[in-house]
Amino acid sequence: MLRKKKIGFIGGGNMAEAIVKGLLAGGIPPGNITVAEPLEQRKSYLSESYGVSTTGDNSSAVASNDIVILAVKPQVCLEALQALSNKSSREKLFISIMAGVPTKTIEAELSAEARVIRVMPNTPALVLEAAAAISPGTRATPDDVACALEIFGQLGTACSVPEKLMDAVTGLSGSGPAYVFAFIEALSDAGVKNGLPRDVATRLAAQTVFGSAKMLLETGEHAAVLREKVTSPGGTTIAGMHVLEKEGFHGTVMTAVDAATSRSAELGKG
Prior knowledge:
Layout: E1 7-10, H1 14-25, E2 33-36, H2 40-50, E3 53-55, H3 58-63, E4 67-70, H4 77-84, E5 93-96, H5 103-110, E6 115-120, E7 130-136, H6 142-153, E8 156-160, H7 166-174, H8 176-193, H9 198-219, H10 223-230, H11 236-246, H12 249-269
Parallel strand pairs: 1-2, 1-4, 2-3, 4-5, 5-6, 7-8
Antiparallel strand pairs: 6-7
Helix pairs in contact: 7-12, 8-9
């Protein structure tokens, strides 16, 4: 579906770069990709690194492409959308990765016929291991949803959710990498406390998290079942798990996601 499409980006930051990498890895020709970016140094970098076309004109990145990915900061979204309103049409699909900006806002600023999909990827997109959720706007078609899933599937994994659940997605997978990095840091610190060199402790901690996640995804088993398989009677793991549960590990993680979800909802209203 994608290989015949021309794709434009409004904004050429890190997340846009990650999407470009995913598209190229998925077989999209560089000549089918255009990135609109105001900074000359960034334009040169993207062009030289990936062979894509670059421009300083947002309007041209919309006019010549079938799919337009809105990758600017949410603080400047209204300014960017208003400048594009006369270039939007029902023939073009707009995909937004602007955090906290609802599809109704984008639709209202573009045109009465704009087809819009909102996406919440997370930072592991930079290494093509993202978790992304997409939500269609009122005029997006099933083909549009499939197209967005195909694009963000190139960056890791992608799923479709109702837009009312986007704050929960933000609280879980959007903010989730920070929780995981904090956990890895804590594991590494514990290893150092018990005598391991820092580089060894960090490498073991990171690989343990990576391998455990891969095992869960590939086996399809529930996390509790896999945890039980590691936890032998009277062993070391149950001793450690007892402390985690005593200190409220499970509940603390859930409360953190709740807090991030609530904050996402607050920011969306502001």
